[in-house]
Design goal:
CATH class of chain A: Mainly Alpha
Shape of chain A: flat
Oligomer: heterodimer
CATH architecture of the largest domain in chain B: 3-Layer(aba) Sandwich
Strand content of chain A: under 5%
Structural class of chain B: alpha/beta
Number of domains of chain B: 2
Number of helices of chain B: 10
Number of strands of chain B: 13
Distance between the termini of chain B: 75 Å
Largest sheet of chain A: none
Radius of gyration of chain A: 22 Å
Strand order of the largest sheet of chain B: 5-1-6-13-7
CATH superfamily of the largest domain in chain B: Periplasmic binding protein-like II
Number of helices of chain A: 9
CATH topology of chain A: MetI-like fold
């Protein structure tokens, strides 16, 4: 069978590759709110006057930036499952609550993204002049309105390049979940190449799909940056 | 206050669950397999797991009157996954060994195939003694009886271990390693379908009782004795009414039920 029919034919592996691509995108997109959101929360805590809180956040960031992301994934997948099992045993439940590999991937990647993005958010928080929140307060805006209407748009403008970079890394880090037998794009390519002994064909196809995602992300990012920078010289 | 209420609710729930957890009624069984072991189990283009063990498992489930689902699980983590409850039985050509019996409980043996040495077609020598293979590179899958065998008897060779059996076969085909040890039928299937004449099966290895065991069985958690009894009963039934031979004939030209080939 030639390469074209292996990919696109009815007996072909193209369908599996597409399913894998969807899992990859789903994993990355699901991680974004949890990862970047936790990163922002972590950054705010890092600027806290409380020394213990600051130390804990620094320790958290150092740990998850310091170990390979694959190791973080394993720690979450096996460690969290063990914790859940221990907790269910203590609560007396007879059947274990199972941690789905996809969600273990979301949690692990969110933790890693939070650690990396917190540094970007800290830089952004420090860059927004304190006068902004003071002025908002003097106008009578409560702290919630101040944050979402005044601070956040300015934070995003400064943080966007750094966050965009982390998104690109996240998109590729999703491939780590292939080690947990989840059929993502990389795993689909590897199954196909093992079954047909045509590794170059399928890995090139996977690379092409990842590149399409990356190029689209780049376009979206420059669009967002343009919007965030409107009104600035 | 809220914490106390939550604990009370959990306590109530646990007593309800505990009463229901007496004898487990098996209606659905989840099978765990490492689907990189054609023709026993592999992934087809639609992502489904297919192979001899899938057909055999379906026949057993029919006898046991349960619904069966199949999950793909990498070989290195397959026993931890079973013990963690991700599935109920390992049905993945797992040989019965004393070391594994310490962690899991096996059903009766359901097949035993010859174990072989394979090498490149250009290599005309049939001598696979430890002395002849001194310094050569031999590959096989990690955490298997083949790996244990090599580590016990071929200490002077370079032993390379891989996550699946496909990888040493691919490396043998490309010339990166000199020999492969593995299941005779898996090797023959690989060379026939994907080998392109690169390699050949050299000779059969006589099973060493302490290392190779009697054959493969279904592995379960030690507490699931009722499941094991269900399996043994079904295995005997599938043997008796000829279904085993029918499924076997679809995949293999020889009988693998429990007889060792001598040539």
């Amino acid at each position: 069978m030639n390469g074209f029919s292996l990919l696109f034919g009815p007996e072909g592996w193209g369908g599996l590759l597409l399913e894998g691509a969807i899992v990859t995108i789903l994993l990355a997109v699901t991680t974004v709110p949890f990862g970047f959101g936790s990163g922002l929360a972590l950054a705010v805590l890092k600027l806290s006057p409380n020394r213990v809180v600051r130390a804990f956040c620094e320790g958290f960031t150092t740990f998850f930036r310091g170990i390979p992301d694959l190791l973080s994934l394993f720690i979450v997948y096996f460690g969290l499952q063990a914790l859940i099992d221990r907790a269910s045993k203590l609560a007396g439940l007879s059947s274990a609550i199972e941690l789905n590999a996809f969600f273990a991937g979301v949690i692990a990647l969110s933790v890693v993204v939070a650690a990396y993005s917190s540094e970007v958010w800290v830089a952004a928080l420090n860059a927004v002049p304190k006068g902004q929140s003071e002025a908002a307060h003097s106008l009578g805006l409560d702290s919630r309105k101040t944050f979402f209407l005044v601070l956040l748009p300015q934070l995003i403008r400064i943080a966007l390049p750094g966050l965009g970079n982390i998104w690109m890394v996240l998109l590729k880090d999703t491939s780590l979940i292939s080690t947990l037998a989840v059929i993502d794009l990389l795993r689909a390519a590897s199954e196909a190449s093992k079954n047909t002994t045509r590794p170059i064909l399928f890995y090139s196809a996977a690379a092409a799909i990842y590149l399409v995602f990356s190029i689209l992300s780049g376009l979206v990012q420059s669009n967002l940056e343009r919007r965030a920078n409107r009104g600035f010289a | 206050m809220k914490a106390i209420k939550l604990l009370a609710l959990l306590g109530l729930a646990s007593t309800l669950m505990a009463s229901a957890a007496g004898a487990k009624e098996w209606k659905a069984i989840r099978f765990g397999m490492d689907a990189s072991y054609a023709p026993f189990e592999s992934v087809d283009p639609s992502g489904k797991i297919v192979g001899f063990e899938v057909d055999y498992a379906n026949a057993l489930c029919e006898r046991m009157k349960v619904t069966c689902t199949f999950q793909n699980q990498d070989w290195d983590g397959i026993i931890p996954a079973l013990l963690a409850g991700k599935f109920d039985v390992i049905f993945s050509s797992m040989n019965i060994t004393d070391e594994r019996k310490k962690k899991v409980m096996f059903s009766d043996m359901y097949y035993a195939t010859p174990i072989v040495f394979a090498g490149q077609s250009a290599n005309k020598s049939d001598d696979v003694s430890p002395a002849a293979l001194k310094g050569k590179t031999i590959g096989t899958q990690s955490s298997t009886i083949h790996a244990n065998f090599l580590e016990a008897f071929y200490k002077d060779s370079n032993i390379k271990l891989y996550p699946t059996q496909d990888e040493p076969n691919l490396d043998l085909a490309s010339g990166r390693i000199d020999y492969v040890v593995g299941d005779g039928l898996v090797e023959a299937d690989f060379f026939e379908k994907k080998g392109n004449g690169c390699c050949r099966v050299i000779s059969e290895i006589k099973r060493v009782p302490g290392i190779h065991g009697p054959g493969v069985g279904a592995a379960m958690r030690p507490e699931d004795t009722d499941l094991r009894d269900m399996f043994n009963k079904a295995i005997a039934e599938v043997d008796a009414d000829g279904t085993y031979k029918k499924i076997e004939a679809k995949y293999f030209k020889q009988d693998i039920r429990g007889k060792q080939l001598t040539n």
